[in-house]
Write a structure and sequence with these properties.
Layout: H1 2-11, H2 23-31, H3 33-39, H4 46-54, H5 56-68, H6 71-89, H7 96-109, H8 112-118, H9 134-156, H10 163-174, E1 181-182, E2 192-193, H11 218-231, H12 239-253, H13 260-274, H14 287-298, H15 304-323
Antiparallel strand pairs: 1-2
Length: 324
């Protein structure tokens, strides 16, 4: 598409300062700075501060509720809901009761810590009576275990996530799926493996104007992502809003060949849990609305759509649990 080519030329125009293939050209290209400087995924804008000021009463209400709620118990009960909804956003059709059955059987029959340590997971037939596809059962099984891994890392081990942790989450998510080991059709020698950054170019099939960075830019951009993650505690922005930006920026970097949405939502949940909040479950949120809210941020327009979705969702979770 001519418009997409024009957009790519606009984004990567700074490379034209150097001869293509020169040392300087490669250094700039591999640094990720060209893509980063165009999209500015790690910068806070006046709009963000204005949004926070306008909606501070909702954020303060969540702060108050978070101090009154038994977060550990609630989180244990939310593992299934979070994993189920995250898979549903990606078109998984299992019912919540079917996801609950998988979780119950995992807990009853297996040592979850050993499963995660050895990364050998039980087959669908041993954890589900559903007549849905094995692929969908495996997706939910994997997400449940990835969520448990995050919960264990943050709440029990008191550790924040790092790049190795993000890669492990991805490896868990894709375990035993057709995408665990994958070769693009145009290069059968370029094997992609779960838990490793992609080494080929990807694009959004739903939106030709969403531009993910080239694979050679990913390692440097992920280092910047972690810096953004680690330094966010020092800025005057609410953790819920920070978590939204972490989700959007990681999904935009698209570091893996598959599973980026599930991983991004999981890292968002990790950040919220680490800061004493419940994760966003995305109750009743349509996939198209969720994707549109990410695109608004990624195009540098406005983060308010995602902020609204997440704040409303987390408030609903607190109110629902306080009624129990």
């Amino acid at each position: 598409m001519a418009q997409r080519r024009a957009l790519l030329n606009e984004i990567y125009a700074p490379l034209k300062k150097f001869e293509e293939g020169s040392k300087e050209w490669y250094e700039l290209f591999n640094s990720g700075k060209v893509w980063r400087d165009y999209y500015c995924p790690f910068e806070w804008r006046a709009k963000d501060y204005e949004y926070q000021e306008k909606n501070i009463h909702y954020l303060k209400e969540i702060d108050l509720l978070s101090t009154k709620s038994p977060i550990v118990k609630i989180l244990q009960n939310m593992i299934v809901n979070f994993s189920h909804r995250s898979c549903a956003i990606e078109a998984n059709t299992l019912e919540l009761s079917e996801s609950q059955e998988i979780w119950d059987r995992l807990n009853k029959s297996y040592n979850l810590n050993n499963l995660l340590k050895n990364e050998k997971f039980p087959p669908p037939s041993s954890i589900s009576s559903s007549d849905k596809s094995e692929k969908e059962i495996i997706e939910v099984r994997n997400h449940l275990l990835a969520t448990y891994f995050i919960y264990n890392t943050v709440r029990k081990l008191n550790q924040e996530i790092n790049i190795d942790g993000i890669k492990k989450v991805h490896r868990i998510m894709l375990k035993d799926t057709p995408m665990e080991n994958f070769c693009p059709w145009y290069n059968r020698k370029n094997m992609q493996q779960a838990g490793k950054f992609r080494t080929f170019v990807v694009q959004s099939y739903g939106d030709p104007f969403t531009v993910y960075p080239y694979d050679v830019e990913v390692p440097a951009l992920m280092e910047e992502f972690m810096k953004f993650h680690d330094e966010s505690k020092n800025i005057a922005i609410h953790p819920i809003m920070i978590s939204c930006r972490l989700n959007a920026s990681l999904a935009h970097i698209h570091p893996f060949y598959d599973g980026n949405g599930r991983v991004s939502r999981s890292i968002m949940a990790q950040y919220l849990i680490c800061n004493g909040y419940l994760p966003a479950i995305f109750h009743q949120v349509k996939r198209e609305d969720y994707i549109n809210s990410l695109r608004e941020i990624q195009r540098g327009k406005d983060a308010s759509l995602l902020y609204d979705i997440v704040i409303s969702d987390i408030l609903s979770s607190y109110h629902a649990h306080n009624k129990l």
